[in-house]
Amino acid sequence: MEDNIPSSSETYTVKAGYDWVRGVHLVVPWCHLVWNKLNLPKTSFICWAIMHHRLLTKDRLLRMGMIVAPLCEICRVCSEDHQHFFVDCSYFLYCFNLLLASLRMTVQPANVVHWFSNARNVTKLQKRVFGAAYVALLYQIWMCRNEAKVSQFVKRPEVVVQQVLKDVKLRFHRLNMSKLNQRDSSWILNL
Ligand SMILES: [Zn+2]
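Above: the input record for the complex with zinc ion. Below: its predicted structure, written as tokens.
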């Protein structure tokens, strides 16, 4: 940390002091996806936990020594871990494709983080709305899994995606992002 102390020739501004206290941190590629202002805070938190593989999926519970059946609570076909739940699970993929169809976009589920940082064929608002919807979908999938664990009942994917779109549109209107161009206006009206 001492290496970062401003030399005597540098100006001792508040920013320099703050940067010194904070230290140097790498910017992770999913940072803007997780902390998108269109996200509801609860969905950002779950997404942050997913990016760190911190949710208590069954692979983690087994590693902790707990005795649990390893199969995914939703599809009951594959072992439950983060990669399965949020990329490979047939239920997740069905929901993800329904969401893409509603948003009229094409993104590969394993490529969302890269797409969010690099896509050039959509407007900034479309990217933000997609990001918020994707993060809300991860949240809803995790909630579905927890409900299925208790009740053995899995919500229909159409219901999950409707809830995701409803939450994102509500958040959008609450933030009053009203200065839209014609392309964005008609796109968001038709969601
Ligand atoms: Zn599954």
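Notes for the reader.
The first helix runs from residue 14 to 22.
The chain has one domain: 27-189.
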